[in-house]
Fold:
Amino acid sequence: MEESQQRRQLPEKKEQELTAVIDMMSKLIKHHEKKMHGIKKTQDKQKIQISENHDMIERLQKENDELRTICLENEEERLALYEEISCLQQELTHNINHAKECNSQLEHQNLTNDILTERIETLEAELPSLTLDDDAPTVRMGHIFQPTRKKITRGYS
Structure:
């Protein structure tokens, strides 16, 4: 009897074991389904993030291109300004040199004028000591030197 009971219990036991295995497999499948669902959600989020990143990359590339264009324009403008400044510096240097030359010439002219003024004053001082037969030429000579002195001394005013 025991054997028959064991035989009866054997299928029942196997059935219980199979039921337990089926329950465990069912739980495992549900767990994997949840895991797969979570993975799918994560993948969807990652796809959205990838799409957003792709859009951001395109915007940044466009902005980068615009900035490069602006930089090139600024560089061209900077070079043009540099050229203009260089030309102005050369012109200024030329003008300074010319002004120095003119100043030197003016100083030389002033020195010459001083010498001529002194010479005229000396000649005018000597003029009365000259003896002429007639007074008229002396007066006339004085008129000749007077305007000359005025012309020369005018440069100092």
Summary: The chain has a mean pLDDT of 85.
